[in-house]
Structure formats: C-alpha cells, structure tokens
Amino acid sequence: MNRSSMVLSAALGLGLAAVMTAGPAVAVDHSSSQASTAASRSAYIGSAAEQADNKAFFDAVMKSAKAKQAANPQLSVVTVTYDPSSAPSFAQEIANSAQIWNSSVRNVQLRAGSNADFRYYEGNDSRGSYASTDGHGRGYVFLDYQQNEQYDSTRVTAHETGHVLGLPDHYSGPCSELMSGGGPGPSCTNPYPNSTERSRVNQLWANGLKAGAIDKGLTKIVR
Asked: What GO CC terms are in its UniProt record (predicted)?
C-alpha cells in the first residue's frame, strides 16, 4: 500500500518553519482536514527566517551533544540520537537518511534510541516539512505528507537531517548538492551530501570534540 492510500493527503516539502516549540504546532492526526498546499511545496525555496531556525536547531542539538560528551569524555565520535517513532510512515526514509550520513562523515554518527536529541514527526502542514527546537537541547523534524510525494522522500529526509548536523540551505545549488533541496526541481532524487557538505559537517563536529571549542562550533556554520 502506498503512502497516499494510507493517509488522506500525501505530498512533501523541505522548508524550515519558524516554530520554536517542543512538538509540532499542527495536529499530526492522519484524519486532519488540513492538507498541504502549493505554499507548502514552494517552501522548498527557503527564506532568511528558515536559515535562522536551521541554525537554532543545530545549536540545540550541539548543546545536547556537548552535555553527553562531558559525561563521556573518552568518546572520539559524537553520537546524535534520534527518535523516529512518531513518523512511522517514513521509517525507511529516516533509516536510509541516517545510513547515508553515517557513511558520509566521521566525527558524528546518528543512532535511533531513547533519550533522543531530536525526533521525527509526520502529518499535514500547509508550511511543508521543517525543523524546529525548544532551545533546550531538544528539537524535531516534521515531515509533511504531500511534499514527500512531490519530491524524493529520502532526499527530503536527508536534507532536513542535514540541518540537524549544521548545514544551511543553498537552494541555488545543483542536484549534486543535498542542501540545494527542491531548487533543482522534483526530478532531482540525489540523497547524498557532496564533498563540500561532508567536509563542513566533519569540521563542525570535530570542533565539538575539542575541549573548549564546542561553543565555537555553534557559530561556525559557513555557506
């Protein structure tokens, strides 16, 4: 059974909305009458507000990672833990996204588990997919049904997860650049970060592992 037959409305997008709460601001009930619209699909284009929220989400995850690193100073790699249980329709895409990132970078690894640094949610939202944080080391990625039908779902999920790891949007980039998101159009299905994106993530999380340098990592997101 495909996802569109499992939910009343199905389609997806990769824009980040300015929502600073502990959970999705919209209902994620599959029976919700709030379906995604053209506005949610165009949210893949990005905005200055989205850039600010992307950084805020990364800051929150890095803060949580810092606390875990302090408790386990012998660790050579930071583990960022995620909870996919509230996005069951996207379980495979989330797992694929984690595997893609884990095979692409060396200084941070994604693992599903308890005491999560962030969570995935799913549902219908006119703003499309986005990431958000409560500012206290916890946040979430929301995956919108309709945008995930229009765009490649693994690319969408890997793109949003890229924000968790510190990467900003760059919608004017080519399909080979993961953080170009929907800029290249729905025909782009590449879910892998390019060499520059991989290097940026490794640099950010390497800083996080060095004593006294983790706070600097919070402000070193480069375009």
From this structure: extracellular region
CB contact burial 167-181 (16+ within 10 A = b; e otherwise): bbbbbebeeebbbbb
The predicted-structure confidence for 136-179, as pLDDT tens digits, reads as follows: 556 899 999 999 999 999 999 999 999 999 998 898 999 999 99
Determine, yes or no, domain membership for 25. Answer: no
Domain that holds residue 87: 78-204
Per the domain annotation, does 215 fall within a domain? no
Active site residue 177: no
How many domains does the chain divide into? Answer: 1
72 within some domain: no
Find out whether 152 is annotated in a ligand binding site.
yes
CB 49 within 8 A of CB 18: yes
- Per-residue model confidence as pLDDT tens digits over 89-109: 999 999 999 999 999 999 999
Residue 27 belongs to some domain of the structure:
no
Question: Which residue in the list 50, 93, 122, 160 is annotated as catalytic?
Answer: 160
- pTM of the prediction? 0.74
Looking at residue 191, which CATH number applies to its domain?
Answer: 3.40.390.10
State mean pLDDT over 2-12: 33
Q: Is 215 annotated as a binding residue?
A: no
Is 83 labelled a binding residue?
no
Rounded distance between C-alpha atoms, residue 120 and residue 116, angstroms = 10
Q: Is 134 annotated as a binding residue?
A: no
Please say whether the beta carbons of 41 and 146 come within 8 A.
yes
